[in-house]
């Protein structure tokens, strides 16, 4: 099911104090450090909330998309597209990445929770 | 520090403008100058013009618009700047005007908020507003403001028992208020049963971003509003008694909503209101009327809690009991709110201020709050990542 996964989306660990961030910040929220190392957002996460959006912005040739916010065990929370048949709060979802926006040479790869 | 008041107000009819951007902005400005008895001739006495807009450059392809306004309004050589702070641009510009006067840089500042959004398609408009979001972690995914509001609404519903009918009650209240506001964009009142309970409600009131429906979301509007600020020590120049700016607060929050520690909190609203109360020496019980930023109706409910009118999780109960209606404990959005009056982004904070001034002057015909002395407004930028709160007070 996840063979179509492409690329990766990264979180950022402060090299001074190990505080985790997503998305990237220029300054660590815990220690004001400025050096970070990347780690892939991967594995299982918990669905915190979701929506089914009907009015999509320019460039999407679909009638609707599902979106969700998830929480990882390490405390990171992230938004992504959602591809599950019956979303419900608290359910476990798997992190994948894939095409989230078609733009020809400007195709965007992003988080899709399945 | 000098004290600052409002001595002139102007407001175009919100909806679809029949004129160009500059002419629309000038219509509100001239109404405010007329209201203040200012003739835009040599010796006009206007020191500064601030224009609040989010989209003039992106949507209308016009930049440095404040300079153009000063010239066409015959207000040269007044200082001029354009202020962009997303949908909170309007109240931000008022805050900056206040600061200029309080510091002694200016005696009078004309603040104009103007947005013309209906010149582009709904798709383009949605995309333009979404450019406020985090570029990689939100916007690139296809997320929009309604999507964030839908996810926020689901969380609040799950946490506090808010129902779709509660949102419909807010919609009906605000549309009812707009009936008495001649500048409101939408002047009709939806049927509560039809939009919240009827078996055909999905056709009458379809989902926009579940669980948010059409009547839970503000319309896309063109419009402009203006206020003339002056130092209270020069207020005798103007015919109308000033409405004093008693408190100002502003706060920011995380850019992505996923990063917020408590996802149902609107921290920046709470902090901005706290600062405004502290500056004014007032508390929530002192406020007689409020304009809260209801771009999505769930926001009116949660903001009413964050500014201290009601306890956490009880804002929707207050709506059910009529506490936020005209004649209730704290009437909210007597103008019709963003929901029914409309939401031309950069104009909104100025428009909210105009409504509070009208209430405190006793000029809010048909929707007047009896003996209103003090009013609060909350102007909300992004999805709550930059919020400005103002408290206005009628001079004794």
Outline the structure in words.
- The complex is a heterodimer of chains A (114) and B (396).
- With 114 residues, chain A is an all-beta fold.
- Chain A has one domain.
- Chain A has no helices and 8 strands.
- A 5-stranded mixed β-barrel of chain A has the order 4-5-6-8-7. Chain A has a 3-stranded antiparallel β-sheet with strand order 2-1-3, with no helix packed on it.
- In chain A, strand 7 and strand 8 form a beta hairpin.
- Chain A is globular, with a radius of gyration of 15 Å.
- Chain A starts with 9 loop residues before the first strand and ends with a strand.
- Chain B has 396 residues and is α/β, with parallel strands linked by helices.
- Chain B has a domain of 135 residues: 3-Layer(aba) Sandwich (Peroxisomal Thiolase, Chain A, domain 1), CATH 3.40.47.
- Chain B is 35% helix and 18% strand.
- Chain B has 13 helices and 11 strands.
- In chain B, the strands form 2 sheets. A 9-stranded mixed β-sheet of chain B has the order 3-2-4-7-1-8-11-10-9, sandwiched between helices.
- In chain B, strand 10 and strand 11 form a beta hairpin.
- In chain B, helix 3 packs across helix 13 and helix 6 crosses helix 10.
- The mean pLDDT of chain B is 97.
- At the A-B interface, strand 4, strand 5, strand 6 and strand 8 of A face helix 4, helix 5 and strand 5 of B.
């Amino acid at each position: 099911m996840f063979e179509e996964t492409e690329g990766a989306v990264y979180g950022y660990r402060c090299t001074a104090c190990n505080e985790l961030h997503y998305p990237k910040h220029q300054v660590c929220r815990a220690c004001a450090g400025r050096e970070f190392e990347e780690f892939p957002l991967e594995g299982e996460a918990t669905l915190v909330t979701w929506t089914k959006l009907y009015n999509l912005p320019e460039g999407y040739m679909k009638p609707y998309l599902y979106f969700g916010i998830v929480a990882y065990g390490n405390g990171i929370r992230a938004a992504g597209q959602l591809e599950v048949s019956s979303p419900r709060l608290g359910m476990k979802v798997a992190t994948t990445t894939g095409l989230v926006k078609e733009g020809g040479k400007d195709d965007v790869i992003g988080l899709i929770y399945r | 520090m000098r004290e600052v008041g409002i001595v002139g107000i102007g407001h175009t009819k919100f909806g679809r403008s029949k004129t160009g951007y500059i002419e629309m902005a000038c219509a509100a400005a001239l109404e405010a100058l007329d209201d203040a008895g200012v003739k835009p001739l040599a010796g006009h006495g206007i020191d500064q013009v601030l224009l609040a807009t989010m989209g003039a450059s992106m949507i209308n392809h016009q930049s440095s618009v404040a300079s153009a306004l000063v010239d066409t309004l015959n207000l040269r050589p007044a200082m001029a700047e354009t202020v962009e702070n997303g949908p909170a641009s309007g109240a931000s510009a008022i805050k900056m005007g206040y600061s200029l006067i309080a510091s002694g840089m200016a005696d009078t500042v004309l603040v104009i908020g103007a947005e013309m959004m209906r010149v582009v398609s709904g798709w383009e408009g949605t995309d333009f507003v979404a450019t406020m979001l985090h570029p990689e972690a939100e916007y690139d995914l296809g997320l929009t403001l309604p999507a964030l509001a839908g996810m926020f609404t689901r969380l609040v519903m799950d946490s506090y028992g808010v129902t779709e009918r509660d949102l419909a009650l807010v919609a009906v209240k605000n549309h009812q208020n707009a009936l008495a506001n001649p500048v409101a964009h939408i002047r009709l009142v939806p049927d509560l049963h039809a939009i919240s309970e009827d078996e055909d409600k999905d056709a009458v009131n379809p989902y926009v971003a579940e669980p948010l429906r059409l009547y839970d979301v503000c319309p896309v509007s063109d419009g402009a509003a203006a206020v003339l600020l002056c130092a209270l020590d020069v207020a005798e120049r103007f015919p109308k008694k000033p409405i004093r700016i008693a408190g100002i607060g502003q706060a920011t929050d995380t850019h992505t909503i996923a990063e917020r520690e408590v996802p149902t909190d609107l921290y920046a609203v709470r902090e901005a209101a706290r600062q405004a109360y502290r500056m004014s020496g007032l508390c929530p019980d002192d406020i007689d009327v409020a304009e809260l930023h209801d771009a999505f109706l769930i926001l009116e409910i949660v903001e009413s809690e964050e500014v201290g009118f009601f306890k956490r999780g009880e804002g929707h109960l207050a709506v059910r009991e009529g506490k936020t209606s005209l004649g209730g404990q704290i009437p909210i959005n007597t103008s019709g709110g963003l929901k029914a009056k409309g939401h031309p982004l950069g104009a909104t904070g100025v428009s909210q201020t105009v409504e509070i001034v009208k209430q405190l002057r006793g000029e809010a015909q048909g929707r007047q709050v009896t003996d209103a002395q003090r009013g609060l407004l909350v102007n909300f930028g992004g999805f709550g990542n930059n919020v400005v709160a103002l408290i206005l007070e009628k001079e004794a």
